[in-house]
Design a protein that fits this description.
Length: 210
């Protein structure tokens, strides 16, 4: 399935959007993680946050999401974070006893998205055949793909992803790349903390902790 296979009236392009970070300083406890950090992203952009463990990658993602208050500086994501940001942390947001159909229908209702969107997204991630399987019976990689489906179904322009490919095999990383390309093709943007090398064309890199 190609990225364009999901483009329909149910998935219009996002309005033009910029994400800007200016003179940002972040700390964890008494440890200063970064200062004077700058970042500029526009519609269709992606950036990898790289660096050693503890360098501040997750803290920066959480600051953009509005979960963490910076020590200094400004973050502008073109509106309220709750309306523009979709978050994927280390948890995939799934309940073990719920099937993917049940879980994703809930997330569709939360975001005002039609449940008709569920199966096309699952097919892009190559887990459509698992739609009626409880999340607790999925492998870790399958759960991660389901977590990415949740992110897509939120239908928000900015994806903040913390180690999105951590448990994925080669096929899973290819599915993730297709989903990200589709999202960027709609005018969305992606900020991803990663220790893995991911093949996302024209993605920028921001190294933290240097």
């Amino acid at each position: 399935m190609t990225e364009s296979a999901l483009l329909s009236d149910d998935w219009p392009e996002f309005p033009p959007l910029d994400l800007t970070v200016r003179d940002l300083a972040l700390s964890r406890g008494e440890v200063r993680l970064c200062e004077a950090l700058e970042l500029d992203l526009s519609s269709g952009d992606a950036v990898f946050l790289v660096g050693a463990n503890g360098a501040g990658k997750t803290t920066l993602l959480r600051a953009i999401a509005g979960f963490v208050r910076p020590d200094a500086g400004e973050i502008d994501c073109g509106g309220h974070a709750e309306d523009t940001v979709s978050w994927l942390g280390h948890s995939d947001g799934l309940k073990p006893n719920e099937t993917l159909r049940q879980a994703l229908r809930f997330w569709c209702r939360q975001s005002g998205q039609s449940s008709k969107a569920i199966m096309p997204v699952l097919k892009m991630l190559e887990i459509g055949h698992l739609i009626d399987r409880p999340a607790g019976r999925l492998s870790r990689g399958q759960q991660r793909r389901a977590g990415m489906a949740r992110v897509a179904l939120a239908n928000r322009p900015i994806w903040l992803l913390d180690e999105p490919a951590g448990p994925l095999d080669g096929d899973g990383r290819a599915c993730l790349a297709r989903l990200v390309a589709w999202h960027r093709g709609r005018g969305g943007m992606v900020v991803a903390a990663t220790h893995q090398t991911l093949d996302w064309p024209s993605a920028k890199t921001l190294e933290l902790g240097r």
